[in-house]
Amino acid sequence: MEFKQEVEHVQCLIIGSGPAGYTAAIYAARADMKPVVYTGIVPGGQLTQTTEVDNFPGYPKGITGPVMMEELREQAERFGTSVRFGYVTKVDFTGDVHRVEIDGTVQVTADTVIIATGATAKWLGLESEQKYNGFGVSACAVCDGFFFKNQEVAIVGAGDTAAEEATYLAKLCSKVHMLVRRDEFRASKAMVHRVMNTPNIEVHYNTEAKEILGDGQVVTGVRVLNNKDQSEKDLEVTGFFVAIGHKPNTELFTGILDMDETGYLITKPDSTATNIPGVFACGDVQDNVFRQAITAAGTGCMAALEAERYLAAKESGE
Ligand code: NDP
Predict the structure, then answer these.
(1) Sign of CA dihedral 201, 202, 204, 210
(2) Domain 123-242: which CATH class?
(3) Which residues belong to any copy of the FAD/NAD(P)-binding domain (predicted)?
């Protein structure tokens, strides 16, 4: 990669600002590595799009995702982390120092890079879904549920996210149709229990969304297919939420870092080290199994400790 000019050299560059990125920053800052965090487009990451976080240790009464991320940022800054809004557009990990370009203009070189770019919501891939995206279609109940107050909505998915979002929507909306493609949930028992105990959620098993219906401007319904008897029907809804999982944000590293077949970065066993020395990965971008805020924070800590050891070894000429 050609750099027009050297703007800045840092010891530790952290890409991403979810629990993994900020935890890495807290540890790196306390180790005097003067980390720089580039937040990405969604500062705070996926947790800023969720409501209550009840399973993060240390918050007996729960905490909202946005508040938790704000506090993590403050904690990272307290020890000297420089948190900057910016999106990494290019990386070059071929040299002894790693080169990273931000927003197509700013250029940084770094001794160590910690990748914590997380994952992004998946879509069904229907044409009508994209047509009405933002006009009744959403992949974030917490962000957009408010717009459907006292209205009837549908949500696709059967995992923990869908279950959580369905119960969230049920508090705001008159009725929530939950479209489950198999005859069972993937979500944990506790979450399924919560869904089943919410009177205004109707679960439609063996049901797929075939088309989002609209008047050309906004969503007016969804055509669903029963994949057991092939029957179709229309549900009258004004909101359509997609909660079918996520894909890792790794396009930037294609052909550069080792990935599995679904795009998750591969790290060495019991480590956050990637195939490139000095480049570490933590959080959801390298974890398709646990994907929890606490596990992301845990691997963020690991990444910072490993970056510190890498730097120390490099400086002592090992
Ligand atoms: P998951 O991958 O767990 O679930 C995705 C769901 O979407 C599955 O039920 C899947 O169906 C369904 N699905 C996928 N593609 C389609 C499609 N094209 N049409 C219809 N349905 C589809 O993703 P989640 O985002 O729910 O959860 C990710 C991880 O985060 C999990 O490990 C989860 O436990 C965790 N999580 C934990 C929370 C908590 O503890 N509070 C909250 C939210 C998430 P099928 O089952 O048939 O494959």
Answers:
(1) negative
(2) alpha beta
(3) 11-300
- Select from 270, 247, 244, 243 the least CA-distant residue to 260: 247
Q: 140 an active-site residue?
A: yes
Asked whether 271 lines ligand 1 (CB < 6 A), one says no
Which among 54, 103, 143, 234 is annotated as catalytic?
143
Q: How far apart are CA 240 and CA 28, in angstroms?
A: 42
Q: What is the pLDDT of residues 147-204, one digit of tens each?
A: 899 999 999 999 988 999 999 999 999 999 999 999 999 999 999 999 999 999 999 9
Is residue 270 part of the annotated active site? The answer reads no
Tokens 């992301």 -> residue: 296
Q: What is the mean pLDDT of residues 244-267?
A: 95
Average pLDDT over all residues of the chain: 94
The confidence band for 51, taking pLDDT boundaries of 50, 70 and 90, is low
The runs of H, that is alpha helices, within the chain are 19-30, 65-78, 127-131, 141-144, 160-172, 189-196, 293-315
12 is catalytic: no
In the numeric block, the tokens 């890409």 are attached to: 15
Between the CA of 185 and the centroid of ligand 1 the distance, in Å, is 9
Can you tell me which residue has the tokens 């991320």?
69
108/265 Cα distance (integer angstroms): 22
CA 253/CA 265 separation, integer angstroms: 9
**What's this model's pTM, rounded to 2 decimal places?**
0.76
Cβ of 156 less than 6 Å from ligand 1 = yes
Q: Give ranges for CATH 3.50.50.60 in the chain.
A: 8-120+246-316, 123-242
Give residue 74's pLDDT: 98
Ligand 1 binding pocket includes 224 (Cβ within 6 Å): no
- Select from 310, 305, 266, 295 the least CA-distant residue to 18: 295
209: pLDDT strictly greater than 90: yes
When pLDDT is cut at 50, 70 and 90, the band that residue 120 belongs to is: confident
CATH topology of domain 8-120+246-316: FAD/NAD(P)-binding domain (3.50.50)
